[in-house]
Amino acid sequence: AEFEGVFLDFARQQATTETVDKLFKLAEAAKLKEKIEKMFNGEKINSTENRSVLHVALRAPRDAVINSDGVNVVPEVWSVKDKIKQFSETFRSGSWVGATGKPLTNVVSVGIGGSFLGPLFVHTALQTDPEAAESAKGRQLRFLANVDPVDVARSIKDLDPETTLVVVVSKTFTTAETMLNARTIKEWIVSSLGPQAVSKHMIAVSTNLKLVKEFGIDPNNAFAFWDWVGGRYSVCSAVGVLPLSLQYGFPIVQRFLEGASSIDNHFRTASFEKNIPVLLGLLSV
């Protein structure tokens, strides 16, 4: 199967044409087509948490309509993306300066689980893309997830607090590991630059503005996401888009989002015989 230059070769799976036919019948019996529609329509298919599952809205075009609880969430998504675009441009142009007046060129993103694995995955991919590598010249993006002090030391090794911005990624701002690491890095900044430096050197991806403010981060520099974003699908929310835009520039990340949106559309509309995500799902069954 092939779609827009993405090739799926499943010749090495132990599946005959008969197996594949059976899998398509299984998909039909499981009402897969209807379930896909339910997801796109914002129905609460996450039954354990009684939530919509709408990572597709994170990369939908600006004029799309995707409802959760009867409200179109796409305008909200775009208002956060517009804010990220503006912030990343200010940051990358050198207009955003740290406590000592120097532009910031290093970013440390602190998060755990989905708040770190997806963004790291895309960062690893973009490092070898010539255009992305060019726009990241002279910048560093690092991720800190582990609470091991050795990992903390490694993530700030050779970094100067004067030129470093820290992104704390926690929806609730209470995740134990993330907040421990955030406090450790905050101490590193404060001990070098003083307590007033925190608002210049730390920003947040969170929905808990009260705790963000109590931590010392300016709530204006907090970027929201929503409870219909599952952790492992959060790379297309501010969780991934913010750190990746700081490193590569928003236009490159927007192209990544458009690619994801294109696959969403393929997943929703292509016949199962040609549908790459469906084929992969069925073969893993």
Task: Describe the fold and architecture.
The protein is an alpha/beta fold. It has two domains: 82 residues, no CATH class; 190 residues, Glucose-6-phosphate isomerase like protein, domain 1 (Rossmann fold), CATH 3.40.50. Helices cover 48% and strands 11% of the residues. A five-stranded parallel β-sheet has the order 6-5-7-8-9, sandwiched between helices. A two-stranded antiparallel sheet has the order 1-2. A hairpin with a 2-residue loop joins β3 and β4. α4 packs parallel to α10.
Task: Supply database-style keywords.
285 residues, alpha/beta, Rossmann fold, two-stranded antiparallel ribbon, 12 helices, 48% helix, Glucose-6-phosphate isomerase, Phosphoglucose_isomerase_CS, isomerase, cytoplasm
At a glance:
It contains 12 helices and 9 strands.
Write the layout of secondary structure elements.
Blueprint: E1 2-3, E2 6-7, H1 17-29, H2 32-40, E3 67-68, E4 71-72, H3 74-92, E5 106-110, H4 114-126, H5 130-135, E6 140-144, H6 149-156, E7 164-169, H7 176-193, H8 198-201, E8 202-205, H9 209-215, E9 222-223, H10 238-248, H11 250-269, H12 276-284
Parallel strand pairs: 5-6, 5-7, 7-8, 8-9
Antiparallel strand pairs: 1-2, 3-4
Helix pairs in contact: 3-10, 4-10, 10-11
